[in-house]
């Protein structure tokens, strides 16, 4: 009998959100070391306030990065669980 492996989608989403949010924050803080990533994140999150030159802009990047990461990783785990039926 095959034991099905299910992923807790909410926990996986939270972990992904923390990872992606911290990635956006760290790239913003160390923007001079990662110019390509900084340009990418500024293009993606700049219209909603991400600015690597300011503290508040980096915090906004962290928040929006968490939200995007949560949604993406939640969707991935939900699809995985759906396909494993």
The total count of helices amounts to 3
Question: Could you tell me the mean pLDDT?
Answer: 92
Radius of gyration: 16 Å
Please report which band the strand proportion falls in: under 5%, 5-15%, 15-25%, 25-35%, 35-45% or over 45%: under 5%
Largest sheet: none
Apparent shape: elongated
Give the distance, in angstroms, between the N- and C-terminal Cα atoms: 14 Å
Give the H and E element order. Answer: HHH
Helix content: over 70%
Q: Given the helix and strand composition, which structural class is it?
A: mainly alpha
**Would you identify the regions where 5 or more consecutive residues have pLDDT less than 50?**
none
Tally of discrete structural domains: 1
Overall number of strands: 0
């Amino acid at each position: 009998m095959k034991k099905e492996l299910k992923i807790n989608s909410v926990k996986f989403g939270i972990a992904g959100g923390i990872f992606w949010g911290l990635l956006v924050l760290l790239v913003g803080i160390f923007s001079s070391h990662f110019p390509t990533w900084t340009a990418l994140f500024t293009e993606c999150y700049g219209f909603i306030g991400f600015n690597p030159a300011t503290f508040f802009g980096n915090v906004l990047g962290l928040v929006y990065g968490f939200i995007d990461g949560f949604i993406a990783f939640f969707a991935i785990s939900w699809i995985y669980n759906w396909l494993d039926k």
